[in-house]
Amino acid sequence: MGEQGTRYRAEDLQRRFGYTLEPGEQCLGVWTRHWIVLVRRAWWLLVLLMAIVGGGWLWIRRAEPGERAMPETLVVGLGLLVSIYILYAYVDWRNDALIMTDRRLVHLERTILVFRSQREAGLDRVQNVQVTVPSLLGTLLQYGEVAVETAARGSDIVFGPVSQPRQIQETIQSRVLELRAAFSEQRMRETVRRARARRQGKQTQGGESLPQRTRPRFRLLPPNPSIEDERIVWHKHAIFLFVRIFIPLALLLALMALAIAVFIPRRTPPLLWGMWGLGVLGLVLMVIWRYQVWLGDVYELTADRIHDIYRSPFGLFGETRRSTDLGRIQNITYEQPGLLAMLFHYGNVRIQTAGAEDLTFDRVPNPADVQRVIYQQQEKYRLRQQEQQWQEVLELLRIFREMEEESTEG
């Protein structure tokens, strides 16, 4: 029981775990938890089910023929409930996985209708892979925990217990070494190709595609995310704006109903109309203020940096901004805590960095998409940095070659 390095096609991976591969990305292996985890969760349920079946059988057997309806119904009902619980434990055990693609490691944790978490680490960020076998039983049954370390603080991927943890360790480490060697050679060749094309006056292919720009139009709620060139901005999910303004909007509607049903048909004193007007004005201002609070809490991604920004309403009290370079990002994790988060498709995205303070995008819509877009921008940034370094190397080689030619001619 449990999957050990199974390779999945993209559509099968999406159907089985709800994880979507990037274009051109390949799944190299999937590992699920050891069967001992399922046994620990469900053994007492199996014992309880056997007790219900055995005890119920004795009860029904001793009952009079005309009195067996109630015990039969009770035994079947309890047995069905326990069986559903056992099935739930089994599905929950199968939900969690460690996925290795040709680009990254992904740790999926899911509890049906309650929680979803996805932690990722690029293979190029992996610094060490450790294995822990917790006990003699783990040695006998060959299971343990695999911990993948990166430069981020407290951001290791820890998954287990899994079968054959040392084999998983060797698989990850060998893939990391292969990737680093292949990537360096690929980038060097690409840089040389582009340098030659520039010297020959040709336009290079394979430029980075920019995100589609959001068309500006009048709307109460801004696009989420809004995209302009390489600047992408997220707000908190609109449901939290609704929560903020629900009470003042409800009171405002109540005042309107009061005016229509009571004040207008009767001769209402000016004092009451004045109090009504002040109440309406106060509630309108409260709605506008709370809307501005929601609007000013944004998360921004550019070509080289990521920002967590809070602008006070109408800019009256300035803004606070926390930022980090894309090159400092080590891991990006998202989670959807609770049933409401799963139903309304919002969650928290945590950006873990090397040395600097971590950033958290709280309650953003479609956190899996946010995570993916940040990774894409980070990859573009990293490729630009690598290409710049290779350009510097090529320039040094060109200067060295010219100096050699000059010394030969002299």
What topology, given as strand order, has the largest sheet?
1-2-3-4-5-14-15-16
Total beta strands: 16
Shape: flat
Main sheet summary: 8 strands, antiparallel
Question: What portion of residues belong to β-strands?
Answer: 15-25%
Radius of gyration using CA atoms only:
30 Å
Assign the structural class, choosing from mainly alpha, mainly beta, alpha/beta, alpha+beta, or little secondary structure: alpha+beta
Q: What separation lies between the terminal Cα atoms? A: 75 Å
Contiguous runs where pLDDT drops below 50 for at least 5 residues: 203-210
Counted up, domains total 2
Give the % helix: 40-55%
Average pLDDT level: 85
How many helix segments?
Answer: 9
Secondary-structure element sequence? Answer: EHEHHEEEEHEEHEEHHEEEEHEEH
Describe the structure.
By secondary structure, this protein is α+β, with helices and mostly antiparallel strands. It folds into 2 domains: 172 residues, no CATH class; 153 residues, PH-domain like (Roll), CATH 2.30.29.30. Helix content is 50%, strand content 24%. The chain has 9 helices and 16 strands. The strands form 3 sheets. It has an 8-stranded antiparallel β-sheet with strand order 1-2-3-4-5-14-15-16. A 5-stranded antiparallel β-sheet has the order 9-10-11-12-13. A 3-stranded antiparallel β-sheet has the order 6-7-8. A hairpin with a 7-residue loop joins β12 and β13. α2 runs antiparallel to α3 and α6 packs antiparallel against α7. The longest helix is centred in the last third of the chain and has 43 residues.
